[in-house]
Amino acid sequence: MPQQILILDFGSQYTQLIARRIRELNVYCEIHPYTHAPDLTEDIRGVVLSGSPCSVRDADSPNPDLSRYLGQVPVLGVCYGAQLLAHQQGGEVLPATIREYGRARLARVHHSSPLLHGVPTESQVWMSHGDTIKTLPAGFDIIASTPEVAVAAYQIQGQETYGIQFHPEVTHSTDGKTLLQNFVVNICGLDQSWTPEHFVDSMVETLQRTIGEEDQVILGLSGGVDSSVAALLLHKAIGKRLHGIFVNNGLLRKNEYEDVLHSYQGLGLNVRGVDASQEFYDALVGLTDPELKRKAIGRTFIEVFDREAQKVEGARWLAQGTIYPDVIESVSVKGPAVTIKSHHNVGGLPEKMNLRIVEPLRALFKDEVREVGHTLELPENILHRHPFPGPGLGIRILGDITPEKVDLLQRADAIFINGLKDHGLYDKVWQAGVMLLPVQSVGVMGDERTYERVVALRAVTSVDGMTADWAHLPYEFLADVSNRIINQVRGINRVVYDISSKPPATIEWE
Ligand SMILES: Nc1ncnc2c1ncn2[C@@H]1O[C@H](COP(=O)(O)OP(=O)(O)OP(=O)(O)O)[C@@H](O)[C@H]1O
Ligand SMILES: O=c1[nH]c(=O)c2[nH+]cn([C@@H]3O[C@H](COP(=O)(O)O)[C@@H](O)[C@H]3O)c2[nH]1
Ligand SMILES: NC(=O)CC[C@H](N)C(=O)O
Ligand SMILES: [Mg+2]
């Protein structure tokens, strides 16, 4: 494990942002749910306690034993984290008379505190709390206040333990980055060496150590950025012992099976296509519940991989291009966050598997994966492809799936995506696709009544897929796409545009 900061998650909506900000400083960090707080190891050089929707005053709120960290390594409590430290040691946390959500300004700042070095008085900070620390325990010193909140920041005497009521990870806290840098670099003593090049070198070494010198590895390759980057890393580590398998699950985009196989030519990778469409359709018959569909798809993928592995002597590993958000959104049993959706490659995996899993990108965000891909010289056309989910059109056809519906959606989707490319808009949106709704509506075409299906166009802007805004596409473009879909795809007579952001919606509809 690289030297790192441990972020203990109490379920705040901002926990991932803390991780992003720390990684932007080229320092590695990991988020762990408070229910599975790891023991201190050599590599953990500091701990951040996240915020939380809970109140320390509630009986069942997160309240782990933090003695294994306190006084051993520097600790920074953010919002709930700060309230929890004060509460555990006999301070008083009460509902605030005015709840604070939004901008505030620091007033008194102790510049001698290493945490606040370079943070000016009057610095703007972002607040989001209903509770406030009324009385600090003995041995806690206030190091910053705002006009409304006396305890905006504190330090425990004789320890490198700090608490802050505001959120430095939110960009509205103008000096948040300075504060986090003070903590991770100056106080925890981490060097800022976690770069894409460093990641490649250390991951190649880890892969060689984990896989050994004999075993063969099967890799689920999809044509997407994540699995392609994973392929280059594994290829660098084990060369010809890597066997890429691209599965046609019958839920791909129009012509995608041929296009993807073609795009891998010339990369020196060993890739094979397997057409398992019918198997997936069979597994999905009659299923309408989104989670059941995802699980059925995840299971079928594994069955296909297991079978293909049997054809390769010495195959013991299944590699996947799983990335951090897939894990965060799928794994809830372990953490305070609820399951949003089971990504087919994580929460959708069956309990019993013959192959062992290896996932070199499991700790990276999407934009970090792209940076690693750039370092490994992945061709631009793959590097800048929009993400496409493994369950494919299966989670964009609401309700049950039939080959006829897949065909309808493939045709509408191709018009939208090609239109984006033709209008120079493809690279301006982060992801785009079409959803086939289980709704029919009345229309009139050539004086005839129609009663056909509705599709929704979805296009979003985002950095890492964790949050997203709907893309403000030009009306003329939307008008053109709508026209073409209705005229060219028989069976669709209405097109709508999805104007929901994530959160509260998600990018995919299922
Ligand atoms: N059709 C497929 N055949 C084989 N493996 C697949 C297929 N679709 C998805 N996978 C596996 O599941 C993983 C997760 O899919 P996901 O869509 O998140 O990543 P990706 O396809 O590599 O990249 P992107 O997010 O850019 O589409 C992939 O990295 C790959 O290992
Ligand atoms: O490989 C995948 N397997 C899945 O099961 C899956 N579900 C969602 N996604 C992709 O993840 C990103 C966030 O999607 P949501 O906002 O819908 O959760 C978007 O980019 C989605 O396309 C998936 N990718
Ligand atoms: N953002 C937070 O961590 C909030 C903590 C706590 N729920 C409060 O309202 O004060
Ligand atoms: Mg994909």
From TrEMBL:
It catalyses: XMP + L-glutamine + ATP + H2O = GMP + L-glutamate + AMP + diphosphate + 2 H(+). The keyword Transmembrane helix does not apply. SUPFAM superfamilies: Adenine nucleotide alpha hydrolases-like (SSF52402), Class I glutamine amidotransferase-like (SSF52317), GMP synthetase C-terminal dimerisation domain (SSF54810). Pathway: Purine metabolism; GMP biosynthesis; GMP from XMP (L-Gln route): step 1/1. It comes from the Bacteria. Residues 194-385 form the GMPS ATP-PPase domain. GO terms for molecular function: ATP binding; GMP synthase activity. It is an enzyme of class 6 (ligase). Keywords: ATP-binding, Glutamine amidotransferase, GMP biosynthesis, Ligase, Nucleotide-binding, Purine biosynthesis. The active site is at residues 79, 167, 169. ATP binds at residues 222-228. Its EC number is 6.3.5.2. GO terms for cellular component: cytosol. Pfam families: GATase, GMP_synt_C, NAD_synthase. Catalyzes the synthesis of GMP from XMP. Homodimer. This is GMP synthase [glutamine-hydrolyzing]. It comes from Hymenobacter luteus. The lineage of its organism: Bacteria, Pseudomonadati, Bacteroidota, Cytophagia, Cytophagales. The gene is guaA.
